[in-house]
Design brief:
The protein is α/β, with parallel strands linked by helices. It has eight helices and seven strands.
Length: about 230
Amino acid sequence: MKLSVIVPIFNEVATVEKVLRRVLAQPVPGVTGFEVVAVDDGSQDGTADILNRLESELAGQIVLIRHDRNLGKGAAVRSAAARMTGDICIIQDADLEYDPSDYPLMLEPIIQGRADCVFGSRFTGTQAKRVLYFWHYVANRVLTVVSDIFTNLNLTDMETGFKAFRVDVLKNIPIRSCRFGFEPEITAKVARRRLRVYEVGISYSGRTYAEGKKITWVDGVKALVTIARYSFRD
């Protein structure tokens, strides 16, 4: 079974090489093939230079896609989904908030044939989690509850950036959102298709804004609109 790791990247000069090397070094039971599909989403901070070097140095292990300008996470996932060739896939942010060592936890339900997609929850499980912003936690809980009301799922962390899928499933879900609206959109569409959804507890090393965190309250408002929009149509 081949694993495709989707890595959306925008201005992550401090972490991108570390992330990609950790991803490539991560063993996953049941996986015999491996590819990293990295999407440089218009980076302007030196990230592109690092990716160009790694593409040459790690030839055959990294598929590099370049966007001429910053389009957002949803657009990066859409570009990667069109190019990936694996049987299963996982979305790995380039900032190391999510740990590649959790891949076996995330992928086991899919490899065993029990799940079509898996959400990694930052609010369940015994794994270590960095303590950060209270109001981010409140906003996340509100968005998750609203999403659960519309989708009739019982997720604890809809907004998680750590999601895994059977490749044939993700390739057949049209992704319209270009930015962080990807998370509520994909959740709504997974629910509408009555796919088998699992959730597992994961570790989490969240960043502060000083460390490069990008999501803001505006994205939360847009998420509410996205939840309503895609809960009733594709």
